[in-house]
C-alpha cells in the first residue's frame, strides 16, 4: 500500500532526513512533513491523510495537542507517535488520547518497518478494532519487558496479567485469573488505602500510590502503582488497568539509608553533647570546681525550664547548653580565677569579662546547642533589676535561658565549697533568694523554685561532690 498518505510532524531536521531514508527503503513516498504541531494541523485541515505521525515534544504545538485537535475533527484518524517510552506520564497521556501505534526512539529500521507494516494493514482493512483491546495490546508490547501489568473487571477480579506480574507474585496464570488482587495483599497495608483507591477509580479518576505486596512464598515486594479506569465510547468504565513498577530494592535502600542517617545524626548529636559538657567542665576545672557543678546546673536548668512552661525540646536544649555558662573562664588568668581572697575592683572587672569571652567563643556557631550556650554564657550574670553585667539588661529583656541559668548557677555555687568561701547552709541560701527575688532574680522563677524545692534537693544529693 505505497499510496498511503502520511502527515509527519517533527521539528528535528536530522530525524526528518533519517526518516525519509527509512520511508524510501520500505517504498513509501507520499509523505508530507511539518516542523511543528500548528503547521501540521493547518496541513491536515487542507488535505487528507491516512496516517498522522507525530513526535511528542515540538515547539508552538506539541504532539499531544496536535492529536487532540485532529480527533475533534476526525475521531477515526489513525495516529502513530514517536516516543522514548521512558516517560510513563507521556505514554499514559498518549494512550488516553487513543494513539494507535508507537515507535521507540532511537528509531531502528527493522522496528520502523514492522510497525509501519502493521499500521498499513490496519489502515487497509479499515476495521474498527475493539478499542480497549487494541490499546492494551499496543501498551503491552511497549512496556511488557519492564512493567507489571494487570487488568481487572468491574468487580475488581483479575482478567489479565502479564508475565512480569506472575514472575514477581510467584502465582501462575491459573491461580490469578478470576481472583481479586487480595491474593497479593500484604497484611501491613492499611485497608483505608484500598478504600481510597476504589473510591478514586470508580469515580473515573486515576489512582497513584506505593503498595507493598506479598508473594506466594510470603516474601514482600513494593510497587509504584498506577490504576487507570478504561472507558468506552459512552464514557462508561469497562475495566481497570493496573500499571506497576517494582521499586523493592529502591525502597529497601531508602529504609537502610534512613537507618544509617538516624544513627549518624544520633552520633553527631551525642558528640555535640559530649563536647559541650566537656568544655563546660573544663571551664569549671580551671577555677578548681568539680564537674558535678555543671552536671547539677544542667539538671536544675531542665527542671526549672519545664516548670516555667518551656516545651521538652527547649528544656532539653537548655540542659545541654547550661554547662557552658562559665566557658569564658578559660580566658581569665589563674591568679584572678583562683584567688582565695576578695578580688580588687580591677580584678573583678577582668573576671566579669568571662561572660563576653564565652559569648564571643560560641556566637559564630550554626549549631543550635552552641547558639543556646552563647546566650547562657552571655546573660547568666544579668540581673532582673538591670544591675547585672555585661550589658545591664533587665527583666524580660534577659533571655529566659539566662534567667533560669542564673538561679541554678547561684543556688549550686552558694552550696559548694570554693577557693574563696565555704559552702553555705541551705537556709542561708534560701534567705538570699527571698531577698533577691525581684532584684537579682526573676521573681516568677524564684517562686517556682521554692514551690518545687524538693526536686532540686534530690538532684543536689544525687550528684554530691
What report would you give on this structure?
Helix content is 52%, strand content 13%. The chain has helices spanning 13-25, 37-45, 63-73, 88-96, 109-125, 131-143, 163-169, 173-176, 191-202, 248-286, 291-307, 312-321, 334-337, 345-362, 368-379, 400-414, 426-436, 443-451, 453-462, and strands at residues 6-9, 31-34, 51-55, 78-83, 101-104, 148-152, 158-161, 207-214, 220-231, 237-246. The protein has 465 residues and is an alpha/beta fold. The radius of gyration is 39 Å and the shape is elongated. Helix 2 (37-45) runs parallel beside helix 3 (63-73) and helix 14 (345-362) packs antiparallel against helix 15. Strand 1 (6-9), helix 1 and strand 2 form a beta-alpha-beta unit. A five-stranded parallel sheet has the order 2-1-3-4-5, with helices on both faces. Strands 7-6-10-9-8 form a five-stranded antiparallel sheet, with helices on both faces. The protein has three domains: 6-143, 3-Layer(aba) Sandwich (Rossmann fold), CATH 3.40.50; 148-246, Beta-Lactamase (2-Layer Sandwich); 257-462, Hypothetical protein af1432 (Orthogonal Bundle). Mean pLDDT is 83; it is low at 285-290. It is built from 19 helices and ten strands.
Amino acid at each position: 500500500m505505497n499510496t498511503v498518505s502520511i502527515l509527519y510532524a517533527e521539528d528535528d531536521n536530522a530525524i526528518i532526513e533519517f526518516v525519509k531514508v527509512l520511508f524510501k527503503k520500505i517504498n513509501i513516498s507520499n509523505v508530507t512533513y511539518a516542523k511543528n504541531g500548528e503547521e501540521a494541523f493547518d496541513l491536515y485541515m487542507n488535505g487528507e491523510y491516512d496516517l498522522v505521525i507525530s513526535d511528542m515534544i515540538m515547539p508552538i504545538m506539541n504532539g499531544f495537542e496536535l492529536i487532540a485537535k485532529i480527533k475533534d475533527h476526525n475521531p477515526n484518524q489513525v495516529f502513530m507517535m514517536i516516543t522514548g517510552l521512558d516517560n510513563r506520564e507521556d505514554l499514559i497521556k498518549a494512550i488516553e488520547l487513543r494513539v494507535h501505534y508507537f515507535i521507540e526512539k532511537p528509531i531502528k529500521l527493522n522496528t520502523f518497518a514492522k510497525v509501519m507494516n502493521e499500521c498499513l494493514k490496519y489502515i487497509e482493512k479499515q476495521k474498527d478494532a475493539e478499542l480497549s483491546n487494541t490499546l492494551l495490546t499496543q501498551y503491552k508490547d511497549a512496556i511488557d519487558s519492564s512493567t507489571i501489568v494487570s487488568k481487572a473487571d468491574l468487580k475488581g477480579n483479575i482478567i489479565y496479567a502479564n508475565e512480569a506480574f506472575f514472575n514477581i507474585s510467584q502465582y501462575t496464570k491459573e491461580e490469578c485469573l478470576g481472583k481479586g488482587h487480595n491474593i497479593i495483599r500484604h497484611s501491613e497495608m492499611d485497608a483505608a488505602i484500598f478504600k481510597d483507591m476504589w473510591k478514586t477509580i470508580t469515580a473515573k479518576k486515576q489512582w497513584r500510590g506505593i503498595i507493598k505486596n506479598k508473594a506466594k512464598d510470603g516474601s514482600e515486594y513494593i510497587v509504584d502503582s498506577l490504576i487507570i479506569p478504561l472507558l468506552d465510547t459512552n464514557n462508561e468504565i469497562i475495566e481497570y488497568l493496573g500499571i506497576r513498577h517494582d521499586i523493592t530494592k529502591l525502597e529497601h535502600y531508602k529504609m537502610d539509608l534512613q537507618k544509617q542517617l538516624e544513627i549518624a545524626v544520633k552520633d553527631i548529636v551525642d558528640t555535640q553533647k559530649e563536647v559541650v559538657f566537656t568544655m563546660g567542665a573544663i571551664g569549671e576545672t580551671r577555677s578548681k570546681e568539680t564537674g558535678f557543678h555543671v552536671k547539677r546546673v544542667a539538671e536544675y536548668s531542665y527542671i526549672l525550664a519545664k516548670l516555667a512552661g518551656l516545651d521538652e525540646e527547649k528544656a532539653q536544649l537548655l540542659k545541654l547548653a547550661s554547662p557552658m555558662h562559665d566557658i569564658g573562664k578559660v580566658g581569665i588568668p589563674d591568679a584572678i580565677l583562683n584567688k582565695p581572697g576578695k578580688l580588687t575592683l580591677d580584678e573583678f572587672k577582668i573576671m566579669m569579662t568571662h561572660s563576653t569571652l564565652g559569648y564571643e567563643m560560641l556566637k559564630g556557631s550554626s549549631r543550635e546547642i552552641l547558639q543556646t550556650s552563647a546566650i547562657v554564657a552571655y546573660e547568666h550574670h544579668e540581673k532582673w533589676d538591670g544591675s547585672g553585667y555585661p550589658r545591664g539588661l533587665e527583666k524580660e529583656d534577659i533571655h529566659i535561658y539566662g534567667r533560669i541559668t542564673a538561679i541554678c548557677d547561684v543556688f549550686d555555687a552558694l552550696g559548694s565549697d570554693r577557693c574563696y568561701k565555704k559552702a553555705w547552709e541551705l537556709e542561708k541560701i534560701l534567705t538570699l533568694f527571698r531577698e533577691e527575688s525581684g532584684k537579682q532574680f526573676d521573681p516568677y522563677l524564684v517562686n517556682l523554685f521554692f514551690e518545687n524545692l524538693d526536686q532540686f534537693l534530690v538532684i543536689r544529693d544525687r550528684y554530691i561532690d
